[in-house]
Amino acid sequence: MNNDPFWSAVRRRHPDLDIVILPPEPEPVADSTLPVRAPEPFAALEIAEADGCWQRLVGHGMPTSVRRWIPGPTRDSVRHAVTLTLDGVSAAAGLGHLREASAPLKADGWQVFIPPTGMPRIAADRAGEMGAESLLFGYATETGRLFLRLTSTGLPVSAGRARELIGSVS
Cβ of 166: how many Cβ atoms within 10 Å? Predict the structure, then answer.
């Protein structure tokens, strides 16, 4: 800004002002142009996938399940998120599940990332039809909670149906 004739003059005349230049407004998110699909069967498949992941990675317990629709990559799409949680897991068991999870996830086609700091967790994603699906598997040492969140790839529905689903739970 100091080399620009306009902004350098403004800065010289008004040293008390802070100047912030904002980026341009993002382009509106377009529609997917893909055929509309039914959300209920898709949600059932995602719930089954999350349950299957839990069985492969943990293999025990009756986790609590929370399911919801979230915005998709386009205005006329949604994603389905399933979060499974199990409380009262010992640190040895929780951390053990995390240590053993990388190989089965890679075998299922997931790209796995294990952050070196922070809460013990594994982040993974794999390509889908409308963006990647993602998985977060972690253990909260303070509370003894083991959790798995599976977020689907985008599902094309109409824009109106997307708004309707995001306001509801499947």
Answer: 14
How many structural domains does the chain have?
1
Q: Quick check: is 65 in a domain? A: yes
What pLDDT was estimated at residue 86? 98
pTM of the model: 0.80
Structural domain of residue 102, as residue ranges? 39-166
3-class secondary-structure state, position 84: strand
Residues 33, 74 contacting (CB under 8 angstroms): no
Residue 46 lies in a domain: yes
Report the DSSP pairing between strands 133-140 and 121-126. Answer: antiparallel
50 φ/ψ angles, rounded to the nearest 5 degrees: -65, -45
**Count of other CB atoms within 10 angstroms of residue 66:** 12
Per-residue pLDDT band for 116 (boundaries 50, 70, 90) equals very high
Q: Kindly report the CATH number assigned to the domain that includes residue 93.
A: 3.30.310
**From CA 64, how far away is CA 60, in angstroms rounded?**
12
Calculate mean pLDDT across residues 140-159: 96
Q: Is 135 helix (H, G, I), strand (E, B) or coil?
A: strand
Q: Is residue 58 part of a domain?
A: yes
In a domain, 149, yes or no: yes
